[in-house]
Amino acid sequence: MKKGLQLLLLTLILPLVLTTGSALAATPETNSGNADQVESIAAIKKRGKLVIGTAADYPPYEFSVKEHGVNKRVGIDIDLGKQIAKDLGVKAEFKVMNFDSLLVALETHKVDMVIAAMSPTPERAKSVDFSKVYYGDSQYIVINKSDKAKYKHLSDFKGHVIGAQNGSEQYDIAKQQVKGAKLKGLDRVNNLIIALQSHKVDGVVMDSTRAKAFVANNAKLTTLDPHFKISGQQGTAVAVAKNSPELVAAVNKTITKLQKHNTFDKEYVPRAGKYMSQGAKQNTMWNYWNYFAKGVGYTIIIAVCSALFGIILGLLLALMRRSANLVLHGLAVAYIEFIRGTPMMVQIMFVYFGIGAIIQSMPAVIAGIIAISINSGAYVAEIIRSGIQAVSAGQVEASRSLGMSKRLTMRYVVLPQAVRNIWPALGNEFITLLKDSSLASVIGVTELMYQTQLVQSATYKGVLPLGVAMLIYFILTFTLTRLLNFGERKLNRPRQA
């Protein structure tokens, strides 16, 4: 029994050791020299694909549309990425995640480059290299049309709330130049527009191309050009890992060719505008049912797998915590307290970018399942422990007096009664897992919340897609509740002699 517990202990702590080691290993790899980066171009060509990080929620640069019943990513940045890959003789693979996670993904080598309407600011240039600017842009403020007479200059926003996307150049500009205003940052521009229309913010700072796209598709919005003072290069550029002169040169060669033939204004921008108009015409929720269906599928997969692994891990931790072995007991307590004391979103990102620095081929969905399972295991352990403690000590003593070993007593006497006692609490944990799967969207897992955000981008509707997502989550949780209640009735049904 003792050897078995020690083996299980090693199984539990191995992921933590790997995660810690990956954090240490990522530093020298990220700061590698030119020789390593020369080899990276050869590696890109050898594997036959260029992995590009993007946000896919920023028309006309990168967004998703439905064409002939098929979901596809389109926009200026998508076209540019495909052309860069073509010039390198490989295929383009786009990895979508939140904008403020893109540079982390680049530094941990989850992607080869980032093309996401990113401005080459001096602060970002300290950690990554940038190509030349491929498309110039100024900065606007989007406001409600009903407030057009109220806001004409930057000084008019004093004492009001201004919004900008987290991690963006617009956020820094607003922080520095909109004096006296309260700055509110959100991960997605769509959420900022929802906040604007619900008067949670009074204006949203974004680039002029994006701002004009929103105004063209929403009659209740308008733009304001406050003539921001921009230092350095103004426009968008491609980001690559630090000390990558060969890759930067290859990207610049493609950009120069496209700019020479005016491809951006002649082809890429009009094509993006065409897709945006198409999305505006097909912006009913029914046209995007397959987005929601795909999200539901991934949500269920994440919830089921995380629940299964969480129960296994939780049972092991509960037994370890009840063990007379002080080492096993201490490790279980430390694990449970640490996991319960840190946010799940942080754990998801740490697993993906931490372990992912070593296992670079790890899919985002696997990282999400691992992180959510690790988190769930800590809570399930306490639920199981409380159930075991609720079983009368007299029953344990009676079982031992009949000659049953500790293992048999736990298996046939204690655990069956504990499961009956903790079933409602486990049910709550399963329902929580189903909803918490939405946190995996931060690393690009295409679950329900992630797909909802894509629908928001494609339709320029903020609240309605959220309403559909809420209804779907309710249907899922209500169905699960009915199943759990059925299981509870089966457990509590008295056995016939």
Automatic annotation (TrEMBL):
Regions annotated as coiled coil: none
Domain ABC transmembrane type-1 stretches: 296-481
Molecular-function GO terms, alphabetical: transmembrane transporter activity
Topology relative to the membrane: Multi-pass membrane protein
Major localisation: membrane
UniProt entry keywords in alphabetical sequence: Amino-acid transport, Cell membrane, Membrane, Signal, Transmembrane, Transmembrane helix, Transport
GO biological process per UniProt: amino acid transport
InterPro entries: AA_ABC_transptr_permease_3TM (IPR010065), ArtM/GltK/GlnP/TcyL/YhdX-like (IPR043429), MetI-like (IPR000515), MetI-like_sf (IPR035906), SBP_3_CS (IPR018313), Solute-binding_3/MltF_N (IPR001638)
Compartment annotation: Cell membrane
Gene Ontology CC: ATP-binding cassette (ABC) transporter complex
SUPFAM superfamilies: MetI-like, Periplasmic binding protein-like II
Signal peptide limits: 1-25
UniProt xrefs under Pfam families: BPD_transp_1, SBP_bac_3
Chain ranges passing through the membrane: 295-319, 350-374, 463-485
Family to which the UniProt record says this protein belongs: Belongs to the bacterial solute-binding protein 3 family. Belongs to the binding-protein-dependent transport system permease family. HisMQ subfamily.
Record's protein name: ABC transporter, permease protein
Organism: Limosilactobacillus antri DSM 16041
